[in-house]
Amino acid sequence: LNGEKMWITNGLSARWFLTLARLEGSPPREGLCALMVDGRQEGLERTKIRGKMGIRGSETAVISFHDVFVPAEHLLGNEGDGLRVFLTTLNRGRIGIACQATGIAEACLEAMVAYARERKQFDRPIGRFPAVADMIADSAVELEASKLLIWRAACRAQEGELQRASSSMAKAYATEAANRIAYRAVQVHGGTGYVRESRVEQLYRDARVTTIYEGTSEIQRAVIARELGDEE
């Protein structure tokens, strides 16, 4: 196996790598294989990616393969099944990213509510001002909507009826909602939310990547539109 993969979560410590590779000489879109690659094999190199904007507690790496030996029994499915295997994995993984984003959003909302009760202007908590109250209310509604979309996708996955549109809807909505809620959390905190010592500053940075990995928001919309079109 030869090649390189970037942005691999837990790439520095993982024992096994699920890898999509193309058989040499195969035409585009053909010959894709899903391989389980042992991280201890000779020729596999790991390089840490530094300077990430957020999610700094999660190690991210570049994985390079230099004539790495992969036994035939480590092929998942048959030759050419790789794309199917990976799309199935992505469908479920997108639900996980939606959950991650919703956790960030919930932490932001909790911080907003606590600060709005504590911080006072003109002898009353800032949460009583309509501008702040609206941001908190909008965030609460979007958070609940995210959870419902996730529950629906997760239930369908558990029942073996997961559709790509369901996981993409949950992923697109929850991750974008998390970014909006994180933005509001910083707004409510004002200058206090802009400094590194602030919890919401970290949450704001952490939320950003959720609209990117496991497929960008634009990809999710393309999947949703294609799935709806195929049903007609």
Question: How would you briefly describe this protein structure?
Answer:
By secondary structure, the chain is an alpha+beta fold. The protein contains 5 helices and 8 strands; from the N terminus they run E-E-E-E-E-E-H-E-E-H-H-H-H. It has 2 domains: 77 residues, Butyryl-CoA Dehydrogenase, subunit A, domain 2; 147 residues, Butyryl-CoA Dehydrogenase, subunit A, domain 3, CATH 1.20.140.
Write a structural description:
With 232 residues, the protein is α+β, with helices and mostly antiparallel strands. The chain has 2 domains: 3-79, Beta Barrel (Butyryl-CoA Dehydrogenase, subunit A, domain 2), CATH 2.40.110.10; 83-229, Butyryl-CoA Dehydrogenase, subunit A, domain 3 (Up-down Bundle), CATH 1.20.140. It is built from 5 helices and 8 strands, in the order ββββββαββαααα. The strands form 3 sheets. Strands 1-5-4 form a 3-stranded antiparallel β-sheet, with no helix packed on it. Strands 2-3-6 form a 3-stranded antiparallel β-sheet. Helix 1 runs antiparallel to helix 2 (130-158), helix 1 packs antiparallel against helix 4 and helix 3 (164-189) runs antiparallel to helix 4. The two termini are 42 Å apart.
